[in-house]
Amino acid sequence: MSISSQNLGEALLWIAAGIAVLALIAGLAVWIARRRGSRTIAIDAADAVARVWLFVCAVGLVFVVWRAMSGGEMWIETLPATLSWPEQPSCDAAPAGGAAVVTCASVTSVSASIAQLSAGVRAVIAAGAVLAVIASATPALLITIVCRQTFRGVPFSRSASRAFLLAAVVLLVAGTGAELTSGIGASLAAAEALPRSGAELTSNGVFSVTLPLWPIGAAIALAALGAVFRHGGVLQRETEGLV
Q: Which of 37, 120, 173, 200 is most buried, taking the most CB atoms under 10 A from its CB?
């Protein structure tokens, strides 16, 4: 969740509101589970939050595709560009005194709304957004699968262990691909919409791409959990055979 505000208190309040909504959903699930006499209240709450999470991701996916196909303006958060300042800081030594002062600065990216982008660039930007939504939805889908298997009394089933391994692959591909594709799309948009020179805002002619490390760590963790669940399934079947 990302919130921007000119007031820190207001931004924190919106964050708290989002957390409160999730807590309300979890609390409602707990209340319903208690009414039904469920013995898996925590799992019921996790399943409910995951389902809402999936619904939000589905709505976001529809919005991303609609925005790409509508042909309207596209908002790009990090457009690689250089801004010509009227009075560029000299990058000299700081003057005497205790007040904070900017001695040197440069602009490497801006946030911009661009209209009339070509279909190819729009497709690249949309692909990055779609991959980001898929990466966001993967943990929720995994939680839903594990909860469903637990409700059936087979938490360490082959389906659960395979779900962990599949989620590891999807998160690795989608998480990495979202960052790379979004960076390439922003660079292509800058090259298409901005001049290389002769204006206050120009393209810097650089392809700004990022290889994130978190999808790799998350994929390793999920793969390890998949192995643990697979081993748990073996032990569960051996224990059932002894009964």
A: 173
DSSP secondary structure string for all residues of 106-130:
---EEEEEE-S--HHHHHHHHHHHH
Q: Could you write out the DSSP letters of every residue in 176-207?
A: HHHHHHHHHHHHHHHHHHS-SSSSSEE-----
Rounded Cα–Cα distance for residues 94 and 92 (Å): 6
pLDDT beyond 90 at 173: yes
Element counts in the chain: helices (H) and strands (E): 5, 4
pTM of the full structure? 0.81
H helix or E strand, kind and range, residue 34: helix 8-36
CA angle 65, 175, 115 (to 5 degrees): 35
Task: Identify the H or E element spanning 78.
Answer: strand 74-80
Average pLDDT over residues 63-72: 84
Structure token pair of residue 219: 């994929």
**Strand-pair partners of 113:** 75
For helices 41-70 and 8-36, the axis angle rounded to 10 degrees is 130
∠ CA 216-163-130, rounded to 5°: 60
Task: Give pLDDT, residue 170.
Answer: 95
Token pair 């209340």 in the structure block, residue: 31
- Which tens digit of pLDDT belongs to each residue from 206-226? 777 788 899 999 999 999 988
